[in-house]
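Annex B. Sample input.
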Amino acid sequence: MDRTVIAYVIYLVVSIALTVWVARTLSQNGRIFLADVLHGNEKLADAVNHLLVVGFYLVNLGFVALYLSGDDTIADTRGVFEALSTKLGVVLLVLGVMHLGNVYVLSRIRRRGAMEREQLPPVAPQDWVAPSAGA
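Annex B, continued. Sample output.
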């Protein structure tokens, strides 16, 4: 088997395994965070969590597939390691950026919800006052 093909196989196996591991970790731990962001609505948190995981898989596996091809033929074992380190490094960076992007968006939603809760009047209105004619 050609060294280039060996590098492709190793790249695919490791990239797919990393993507699955990160997605499962985010799904399990992110559900708690989503439930808090969505004010305890467990059903909605589960649905959003599932949609985020599906999108995560689609984007990352699509990127892994697109980034598979390379221009150079790998001539030696050192070339295999260099190609793998470059490709896997980029995949890890993309996984990290996507994770940070998701956390950023969810924290913004969470912060916005907290601000809305703080803006409620401290005491419920007790009476209605009609506007004056001169105002």
